[in-house]
Amino acid sequence: MSNVKTVYKKSEGLSDFHLSYCPGCTHGVIHKLVAESLVELDLLDRTIGISSVGCSALNYDFFSCDMQQAAHGRAPAVATGIKRVKKDAIIFTYQGDGDLASIGIAEAIHAAARGENITIVFVNNAIYGMTGGQMAPTTLPGQITTTSQNGRDPETQGLPLKISELMATIPGATYVERVSVHDPKHVFKAKKALKKAFEIQRDKKGFSLIEFISTCPVNWGMTPKGAVDWAVDNLIPYYPLGVYKDKTEGIE
Amino acid sequence: MAKGRIIIDIDRCKGCALCISYCPVNILELDLTTTNERGYTPLMTNDKEKCIGCGFCAIMCPDSVITVEKFIKEAK
After folding, report:
1. 20 to 30 A from A247, CA-CA: which of A137, A154, A221, B12?
2. pLDDT digits (tens, 9 = 90+) for A4-49
3. Contacts of residue B64 in chain A, CB cutoff 8 Å?
4. What CATH code is carried by the domain that includes residue A212?
5. In the CATH scheme, what is the code of domain B4-70?
6. Does A25 sit within 8 Å of B70, measured CB to CB?
């Protein structure tokens, strides 16, 4: 005789909407981790997510918590406002590299500088996905995009911004970690980091940012697995994984 | 005998095949004989008996297509 135990199913934190992302985009994996973390910490009921502009602009339909859409790059400012009115709410923003690292970098830095008690989920796929694959501040040197057709030239376009390292230098930030979702082991690690960030917010310990190394198979011109492998070989060496700041453990 | 099984929500699947490359027992493939309601080639299993219920496919699936169940033997 044997019993059946469900070991994995779609999280209650996600709605029944079909995700609008391209096949194989790891945005979906990151959505699952956010939803699962909130459900496992029993925080979903009092969570308000802030969706940004970019591929993730439609994610107010995908999470089953309350969501608010913000203007391009302004998610941390909107999060600050909501958090100050509803102090017991758990607030996360979900931003890509076009939203956070370029147009919205001022909001992100100042939210961290003020030590706002919010969590930023930052998805870095080294390209502007929604608008068709233009060069982003996080595009690697030599990487070919529609606006850097001979590859990004550091002479004229500079070197990519390392957001986690940058945010870790801000005194107001409490927890900054960079994670990846390229295999099941790293997915577990990423979930642990995300849960820690939400716990820090729940315990009112301050600002947290989790950077995810993600993929963009369509605009990189690769298969989904090929894109994951390219991220492991190229993105992770430039953007090393790890904890960049953790005031609760004394890592600065 | 299979140690677990997967249940595939065929109409959510986008046929990205990411799960296939993470299956340790190589029992996943795309069902090239059909398309789902959104026009994608969906996932299928080719040897249900080999499934170990590890859940790697479901963890890596971006679209929450896969539900994983494990068979647990009752203690005698």
Report:
1. A137
2. 999 999 999 999 999 999 999 999 999 999 999 999 999 999 999 9
3. 9-11, 14, 28, 32
4. 3.40.50.970
5. 3.30.70.20
6. no
